[in-house]
Design a protein that fits this description.
The structure holds two protein chains of two kinds. Chain A is α+β, with helices and mostly antiparallel strands. Chain A has one domain (2-68). Helix content of chain A is 30%, strand content 25%. Chain A has a three-stranded antiparallel sheet with strand order 1-2-3, covered by helices on one side. The longest helix of chain A has 10 residues, at 45-54. Chain A is globular, with a radius of gyration of 12 Å. Chain A starts with a helix and ends in a 5-residue tail after the last helix. By secondary structure, chain B is of the alpha+beta class. Chain B has one domain. In chain B, strands 1, 2, 3, 4, 5, 6 and 7 form a seven-stranded mixed sheet that branches. In chain B, strand 1 and strand 2 (22-35) form a beta hairpin. In chain B, helix 1 crosses helix 2 (83-95). Classes of the chains: A alpha+beta, B alpha+beta. The A-B interface holds A 14-17, 19, 25-29, 31, 44, 46-47, 49-50, 53-54, 56, 58 and B 36, 40, 42, 44-45, 49-54, 68, 71-72, 74-75, 78-79, 92-93, 96, 98-101.
């Protein structure tokens, strides 16, 4: 979804979270999971909702992810 | 945004341990409390705009929101080499407003003030007296029990 809706975004890994940066804004709270370095932790949809609103890409994100509708 | 969306204000004051320093971080912020369609309750940050937390009920949502907020501070403390870097990083995090959520928050506040919206079982407070703010102090140089404070969360009215 971010490839389409937030092209050019960057991300970095911190101790507790993935941090995503897009157009001068930073979303610092995509949880890495209880065990820390899990490869594909399940991220609650609420965190994704908050991120797409923060980046103002909600309309595009909803077209890509049904759970956001 | 869900029909059951309420404007809240909150205040947190926490001691955060960094690399060779302890910081006293005191914030007043704004957040939306929503009853989601799946029955969960979520708190979506307005300012700071980069955090959210949710659960099966309001208590869990509060807990998860505070945990989300702290996780960002903990990450910053683990990464920043100095108090000055930490202060700058956290102030930048706090300054980012979630613009769409802010519009919803202001509309919800207007509805509360018009008597059209009210959150049961949570006290309210005049939002004008709780503008968003952040203060960060180098605690180990200014340690005092006056730095201890309970979390506060209220409906904005």
């Amino acid at each position: 979804m971010l490839d389409r809706c937030a092209p050019g975004r960057t991300r970095k890994e911190r101790e507790h979270n993935w941090v995503v940066m897009y157009r001068g804004l930073t979303y610092p709270r995509l949880p890495r999971g209880e065990q820390g370095a899990r490869k594909n932790p399940e991220i609650q949809v609420g965190h994704v909702k908050q991120m797409v609103r923060h980046f103002e890409i909600e309309a595009c994100a909803k077209s890509q992810i049904e759970l956001l509708r | 945004m869900s029909a059951n969306t309420y404007p809240l204000v909150f205040a947190f004051r926490d001691a955060i341990v960094g690399k060779g320093f302890v910081a006293d971080v005191a914030v007043q912020g704004r957040v939306l409390l929503t009853d989601e369609a799946d029955g969960d309750v979520w708190m979506f940050g307005v300012q700071p705009g980069g955090v959210a937390g949710g659960g099966g009920n309001r208590s869990e949502a509060f807990h998860e929101f505070k945990k989300s907020y702290l996780s960002v501070l903990f990450d910053s403390a683990a990464e920043c080499a100095s108090f000055a870097d930490f202060e700058s990083d956290v102030k930048r995090f706090f300054s980012e407003v979630n613009a769409p959520n802010e519009k919803v928050w202001l509309n919800a506040l207007a509805a509360v003030r018009e008597g059209k919206l009210s959150l049961p079982n949570l006290g309210s407070t005049n939002a004008d007296l709780w503008p968003p703010s952040i203060e960060i102090r180098h605690l180990d140089q200014q340690a005092s029990p006056s730095a201890n404070a309970f979390d506060m969360i209220r409906e904005a009215a």
